[in-house]
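DATA SHEET
Item: assembly model
Revision: 1
Owner: S.N.
Input lines:
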Amino acid sequence: MVKASTTENPSQSVSPMQTFFIHLICGVGLAVGLWVAHNFYSISLISNPSRTLRLIWVTMCPLVILFYSCFRKNPEKCSYLKAVIRGVLALPIGALVNALGAIALGAPVGIQYFVPAASVFGSSWEDWRRIFAHTKPNASVDYMICLPAHGAVIGAWFGAWPMPLDWERPWQEWPICVSYGAMAGYLITMVLSFVLVLPRGRQQHPKAD
Amino acid sequence: MMEMGDWWRRGKWRIMVMLTMLHIVGILIFTRGFLLTRTELPYYSNCSDVSESPCFTGQSNPYQNQSNSRCWTRPAVDRLVIIVLDALRFDFVAPSTFFKEPKPWMDKLQVLQKLASTKRSARIFKAIADPPTTSLQRLKGLTTGGLPTFIDVGNSFGAPAILEDNLIHQVDNGCIEHLLPSLYEEDWDVLIAHFLGVDHAGHILGVDSVPMIEKLEQYNEILDKVIEVLDNQSGPGGLHENTFLLVMGDHGQTINGDHGGGSAEEVETSVFAMSFKKPPPTMPSEFDTSSCEMDLDQKKTCISSFQQLDFAATVSALLGVPFPFGRCRPAVICCGQASDAGYLLFSIGRVSPELYTLGAGTWNLENNIEGNCPNQKEEEWMQNYCNVLCINSWQVKRYIDIYSASSVIGFSSEDLLHISDMYAQAEENWSCSSESLLLFKDESCYSSLPLKRKIDAYFKFLLNVAELARSKWTEFDLKMMGIGFVIILISLPIYFLAMMTKSVNGFSSLLFGDSEIFVKLVFALFMVVIRACSFLSNSYILEEGKVASFLLATTAMFKLRNSIKREKMLVEVAVHWASESDVLSSMLMLQGIGRNFIPRIIYAVGLGQLLLLAFSPLFHKDRDLESKMHLLIKTLAMLSSCSSTIIVLSGKQGPLVALVTITGGYCIMRLGNIDRGSTDKVAGILTFDPLSVTQWSLLATCLFFVTGHWCAFDGLRYGAAFIGYDEFVLVRQAILLMIDTFGFSHIIPVFGLPFLVARQKLLGHTDQDGRLLLLQLSQMYLMYGLITAASVIATILCVIIQRRHLMVWGLFAPKFVFDVVGLILTDILICLAWFYYVGRREDGTQLTTLDHRD
C-alpha cells in the first residue's frame, strides 16, 4: 500500500482513453476467439467446450500479456520484456490456482484473473494483497485489474447455479455455463471499471498539466 | 421479570429440552396433516355378501350355486391370462399413426397392433394410472382398485434394490421359461406374468436405445407365441375355450426411463385385451368412447381409454368373483411382487364398459338366438351391464360406509350424504333386474330407455365417488400442516432469545459495533438462505450434496480472503480443497472387513467407552471444568468412542471419510483461528465466529452425501445394518442403520463442535475464563441448532409450497422425512452433549456469576 502511493510515475496513471482501448481490445479479443471458433472450426462452447476454450485462450493470452505489460509498476527497474516474461510465467501459476478453483467453482478464470495482475505487479505481495483481499483499488490500473478479475469470479460463481436444474439443455454441462458466467461477469465489470476510471482520469489530467 | 431472566439463564439445558419438545410436537402435527395414510380395512368380499345387495331382490342369487367361488356376477370368462410388461408406455403399443411423428421405439409390438386392427375381439386401451407411478404401488392399485397413499410408496421405493444387480436380459428369462408351459396346465384361473425388462432397459439406458428396441422385439415374439398357443386351444372343448388375454403395463415412463411422477408420459400406459371366444362381441355405440385412426397398413384401429382404477372391478366382473378378486386360484409366475392378488380388499372402481364388453359380450349372443328384435343384442348387453353395475355400485357404497365408519380421517358428512343421495337415486325403480324385464318379454321389443337411464345414474354415482376419493386421499390437511409449521417456527425466535440473553444491548453493539463480525454474520445468513431457497427446486434437492459442498467452498474462499487480509497462512485452504477432491475419489478403494466377530467387539468397546464417559462425571464431581484442556480431552474421548462404531458401519469408505472429516474440521478450525484476535475482545454478544459454525453444519451436510447416502428410502444402506450380525432383529438392526445413516452427518459433528472452542483457546490466549468458554460453547450449540432448524423449516415450507408438485412423493417427501428425523436427532444430541460437556450444576451457577461480573 505504501509503495503504491509513493511511486507516482507517469506510466501508472492510465488515461481513460487507454483504459477504454485496452478493455475494448480484450473484449474484442474474446469475441474474435468465439467468432473464429464458430466460423473457421465450426465449433462452439456447447458442442466442443475444451477446444473452444483453448482457442479463446490462445487469442486472449498474447493480447493480455502484451498490453498489460505496458502498465508495469515501476518501468525504470523493470523492462517491458521482463514484464512479458513475468506474465508468461504467471500462466502456469494461474493454471494451478485455476485447478484449485475449478474444484470449488469449476471455472477457467485463470487468464482474466491472474495474468494481467502478474504482468503489472510482478512479485509485489503487498499489491496483490491490497487488490484481492481488501478490494481497495487506488490507481486506475488497479481498477482495471481488480474489477474484471472479481467480476469473472463472481460471474463464474453465479454461472454454476443453473447446472443442477433438470432442463436438459446442452449448455448445462460442466464448463459451459460457468465459462459463460465468467465471461459475462468479466465483460460487465470491464464496463464498470471504465466508468469508474473516467472521473479519476479527469481529476488527474489537470494535475499533470 | 427478574425471575424469568434468571430462569432463562440458569436453565440453558431446559431451553434445549424445551426446543426439542417443541420440534417434536410441531413435526408430529405437521406430519399428521401431510402424510395422510389410508386405513386399510380388514374385510374381504365374500360370496354370501351379495345377498345383502338389492340387486337380486325377489329371487335367490342365480350364480350362488356355482363352484369355484364365482358368485357375484355371471362369469363371462373362464380363465384370464395377464401379462404385465413393466413400464409399458402407451406409444409402445399404439400404432405410430396416433402420434405426431414416428419414433424408433414405436410399432415394435406388431402382433398386438395387427390383432387389434383385424379382429373385433381384440382392442388396445389407453389406461390412465394415478400417480405416483411406481410398480408396487400400481400393482396394488391394479389388484385392489384403490388409490395410492404415501406409506405404500415408501415400501415401493425399496423394492428396486432387490433387483438392482440383474442385467436387463437376465431379468425376464425366468418369466419366459415358465410362461409357455404354464399355458398348457389346467390348475389356474388367473395367470399373471410380470416382465421387468422394459423397465430396466428404460432405467439404465433410456427409451431411445438399442436394448430397449431389442427388448420390445423380443416381447413381440413371446406374445406371438402366447397368442398362438391360446388360439390353438380355443376351439370348442379346448383348454382356452373362454380365455381372456390381457397384455398391460402398470405405468409408463419418460424418455429417460424414469417414472414415479404424474406426467402424461408416466401415467399413460396401455392395455391390450383379447378374447378367444368366438364369435366376437358387440356393444351399443353410445358407450363406445374410442377414437379410431388408420394404422400403417391402412386398417382401422380403435383405441379407448379408461382409468386404471377401474381395472380391478372390470376384471372381477368378468371373472364373476367378488369385487375385486376374491379367492380364485391365481397362478402368479416369476414376479413375486404381485403374489398377493388373492387377498385384496375393496375397490372403488367402475366396471369399464369397453373392456367388459370384450369378454362379457361373448355369452350374450348364445343366450338369445331366438330373439327377433333388431336391437335385442344390445338390450341383452345392457341388461347384463346394468346388473354388473348394480353390484359394483352396491359394493362401492358398502366400502365407503365401512371406511368412513372405521377411519379417523374419513369423508365429511356432507360428502357422505351426497353420495348416499346419488346411490338412492340410482337404486330407485330398480328395473334392470330380470323379472321386470321378463314382464315385457312376450311383447315386442322393450324400450332401452330406462335401462340406459339406469346405467347413466350408476355411472354418475361411481364417477362421483372416484372423484371424491381422489380428492380426499390425495388431499392434505392444510390446517394441521399450518399449525405444525407455526409451532416449529416459534422455535426460531427462542433460539435467538437464548443466544442473546447475555446482554440485551449487545444486539445494538452487534449491529453498529464490530463491523467485521457483522459482515460475517450476514454472510453466514446469506449462505443459509441460499441453501434454504435451493430446496424449492427438485433438481437442487437431487444435487444437494454438491450444492452444500459448493457453498462450503465458497465460505472457505471467503475466509481465505479474510485470512490473507490478516497476512496469515494459505496452506490450510489448499488442504481443504484437496480434501474435497479426495471426497470424489473416496468411493473406491479398500476392501475386506473381518468376520462378524470383530465388529461386535468394536460395538462393545464403543459402548463401554460411552458408558464410562457418561458416568465419569459422577465420580469426579468436584473436578474443575474450567480448564479448556479438560474440555478438549473430553471431546476427544467422546469422539474416539463414537467414531469407531461409525467407521466400521460405513464399511469400505469409512476410514477415508473419517480422514476427510478430520481434515475438513481441522481446516475450518484453523480458518476460524486465523482471525481470532479481535473477536475475543468483543465478548459481550457473539463470542464466536458465526461463519465457522455455518461451515461446520455445511460440512455435516456434505458428509451425509459423501458417505453415499441420499434423501430417499433406497438411499439407506441396508447392508450396514447387518455388519456383525447375520440374523435380523428389528430394534437392533434399526439402531445400527440409524447410526450408519446419521453417524457422520449428525453424531460426530455435534459432539465435535467443542473443538471449535477448545482449539482456538489453546492456540490463542492462554488464560481464559472457563465461564467464557462455557458461554461460547452454549452459544455455538444454539447457533448450530438454529442453522439446522432453519434449514428444516425451509424444507417444510418448500414441501408446503410444492405439495402439488409432481415429484412431491418422489423427492420432497423423503427429503422432508430425512430432515425431520435429522432435526430431532440433532436436538437430542445437543441436549446430550450439553449434559456431557457442561453438566447442569456448573451451567447455572457459572453463567449467573458471569452475568454479575458484567
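QC remark: The first helix of chain B runs from residue 2 to 10.
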